[in-house]
Write the structure tokens for this entry.
Amino acid sequence: MNATIYHNPKCGTSRNALQLLREAGIEPEIVEYLKTPLSGKELAELAKKLGSASALLRTKEPLAAELELEGADDDVILAAIAKHPVLLNRPLVITNRGAKMCRPAELVRELI
């Protein structure tokens, strides 16, 4: 099974989701989005898989409130995440069974 995880190694939930994938025998492609920020086009593709750009937004990040992103339209949210990768929620896991924001990490099991 192919899998990709959009990962922040400093995040416990992200580390746990990665561990669950590995325990299932899956070595995913790991995208450390803080080291390699995603383009607006890549973010738009992810938003389409999740159903909306707001699903990508880490609303608990203080910058989200500072930028007044709650209720913003998709283009504004995607532009903000592209400019400030810390706004991307994590972990986002994609497999051939779908895409899901895996908070809590155990939600990854629905994709494997």
User: Anything to note?
Assistant: The radius of gyration is 13 Å. The chain has two domains: 1-33+90-112, 39-87. Residues 24 and 58 are 27 Å apart (CA to CA).
